[in-house]
UniProtKB/TrEMBL annotation:
UniProt KW keywords: Exonuclease, Hydrolase, Metal-binding, Nuclease, Zinc, Zinc-finger
GO molecular function: exonuclease activity
Organism: Methylobacterium jeotgali
Protein name: 3'-5' exonuclease DinG
PANTHER family named in the record: DNA POLYMERASE III SUBUNIT EPSILON, EXONUCLEASE
PROSITE patterns: ZF_SWIM (PS50966)
Protein encoded by which gene: dinG
Entries under InterPro entries matching the protein: Ribonucl_H, RNaseH-like_sf, RNaseH_sf, Znf_SWIM
Amino acid sequence: MTVLALDFETANERRDSACAVGLAWIEGDRVVRRESRLIRPPEMRFSPGNIRVHGILPADVRDAPTFPEAMAEFLPDLAQGLILAHNATFDIGVLRASLAAYGLPTPALAYLCTVRIARQVFPDPEGCGLGKVARRLGIRFQHHDAGEDAYACAEIALAAVRALDAGSVLGLTHALAMPATAVPAAPPPYGARPDGVTGRAVAAARAARGSAAPKEIAFTIRGSTGNRYAVRSEPRVTGLYLRCSCQAGRNGRRCRHVDAILDGDVTDLLSDNHADVERLRRLIEAAPDGHRILPERLRRAA
């Protein structure tokens, strides 16, 4: 049986917003393969809290494959094998919700949670979060990178095998009296097209495109010293002009606040209009050559 560790990072609070996946395969007593992929979620809505955790920005995944495209080569192993995940209900939930979002069936799955394993084999008052367990075991990895997290999860399971002399990861189920959790197969959501996404995602995409360009898109963003600045788009003959109220913006220069909005970085966005960041990107893509959303001095220099 294939044994592999799985980890997802998400763009926001929704389980169907996967923006990265990491996997690590185990054979015998070691990790033999590692893979990671960025994923373009159905909605390009990234919550600041999620960005602070994993550092992935909308700009990083604009050209990334969708969930079905990114996961196609891995799904057979996930369906036929034993999945390891740290806080497995989250990662299995992301997998199932994301498949459903694209109208795809969910295969039957079997998984073990390495949080539960660590609580029995490596208990500690400080807790059994991935980083804490890995540190206690001397596992070096970059936390909240999906591929690195999957690797650390796999190494925690292997450390438990050695600690209990269980022989293999499958042997842990007997040594700990912890059978793998079985998840039954689920058909595609009723009325969903196999190549589609949920109505929520379709509606969001259509709203982001917009049939007509808005007169103004406005953002409030936090500066490096905590000041609040306004970044506004202004329609002009030469295209949309993005103006910031900071000193550089008032002098007609492009500033880091404008760069953040154009890059889709909402880490310091204070206004509650994350969807407008993606809508602005679509306007940029649709603009004719030479009609860009840039400060005038920069446009002239280009």
